Amino acid sequence: IKGLFERFKKGLARTAQLFNFRTWFGRKVDQSFLDDLEARLIQADVGVAATTRIIDRVREAFADKTADENLVNFVKGELKGLLEDTTPGVLATAAKKPTVYLIAGVNGSGKTTSIAKLAQRLKDQGNTLVLAACDTFRAAAADQLEIWAKRAGTELVRGASGADPASVAHDACQRAVARGIDILIVDTAGRLHTQTHLMRELEKIRNVIQRLIPGSPHEVLLVLDGTNGQNAIRQAEVFTKSIGCTGVILTKLDGTAKGGVAVAVRQSMKLPIKFIGVGEGIEDLQPFDADTFVESLFE
Ligand code: GDP
């Protein structure tokens, strides 16, 4: 855990640099100070709406005071407030097996890797799993998933190349029910250049799952690449409108991502961040905890 935290912290070092307000201690909190603070928050990908709110609150609380440790703690508190009410890493489960998680996201976001990490995590917690590779147009993704599935000792349902994704979902649901499996994780396609087609396909998969396993999917998790900043928000909007996501897995926070992106996602989409990806390995998935996360954005 400590290793993971270190990696994640290293990835967010750039945000910590932006949030190193120590050099500002002693400055008067006037308009020019607020402008500087605003610029830092925007650079950290916090997003315009959340930044405006934080600046207003700081103005109210600190007008004509001098910047000190209290101001830093105040900003931390605001960020935590904007991120709160997530149950760290807790996913909804079905009263009657199987629980179904539908995973969406554009290609390259880290969807396949995140599914593998999630599957491993749920397996380690004692669950039996079936994975459904519904991205039948990208054979490489299904191959990759198959490698991960083998490694994690879980079953994978996949169709022939170009097969109807909904029929793969159908088979996977039937198999999960027939075998009394605990959790079914459904991977989906993620090509954005055929947006309408993609969204229709996702809806079709969702409908099949709903029909075969009433009350499911229990979570629709959207995988977003943290290094995509505000672009990730636009993707989230498209997916949420179409299939109604329930939570986010925010990936690549060990890389060049700026930590504020978590706040922007949470604020603009009102979606809880369930997990964060902090590396390419199978163990590099962490439950998202607002307190720990915000603290790690500061030196
Ligand atoms: P997909 O196209 O959305 O299924 O994306 P993949 O799962 O194939 O991931 C795309 C690339 O991002 C791969 O090289 C992964 O190893 C990498 N990747 C995924 N998640 C993370 C992460 O949390 N951190 C880092 N550094 N790389 C990641």
TL;DR?
This protein has 299 residues and is α/β, with parallel strands linked by helices.
Task: List descriptors.
alpha/beta; binds guanosine-5'-diphosphate; 12 helices; 299 residues; eight-stranded mixed sheet
Give the neighbour order of strands across the main sheet: 3-2-4-1-5-6-7-8
What summary fits the major beta sheet?
8 strands, mixed
What is the strand tally?
8
Distance between the termini: 19 Å
Distinct bound molecules = guanosine-5'-diphosphate
> What is the count of DSSP helices, taking H or I runs of 4+ residues?
12
Strand content: 5-15%
Mean pLDDT: 90
- SSE sequence, one letter per element: HHHHHEHEHEHEHEHEHEEH
Radius of gyration: 21 Å
Structural class: alpha/beta
Described by the principal axes of the CA atoms, the overall outline is: elongated
Structural commentary:
The protein has twelve helices and eight strands. The chain has helices spanning 2-11, 13-18, 31-43, 48-62, 69-83, 111-124, 139-152, 165-178, 195-212, 230-243, 260-269, 290-296; strands at residues 99-104, 129-133, 155-158, 183-187, 219-225, 247-251, 273-277, 285-287. The protein has an eight-stranded mixed beta sheet, with helices on both faces. Helix 5 (69-83) crosses helix 12 and helix 8 runs parallel beside helix 9. Bound molecules: guanosine-5'-diphosphate (GDP). The site of guanosine-5'-diphosphate (GDP) has 19 residues, from helix 6.
Helix-strand blueprint:
Elements: H1 2-11, H2 13-18, H3 31-43, H4 48-62, H5 69-83, E1 99-104, H6 111-124, E2 129-133, H7 139-152, E3 155-158, H8 165-178, E4 183-187, H9 195-212, E5 219-225, H10 230-243, E6 247-251, H11 260-269, E7 273-277, E8 285-287, H12 290-296
Helix pairs in contact: 3-4, 4-5, 5-12, 6-7, 8-9, 10-11
Bound molecules: guanosine-5'-diphosphate.
Guanosine-5'-diphosphate binds at residues 105, 107-113, 141, 190, 251-252, 254-255, 277-280, 284.
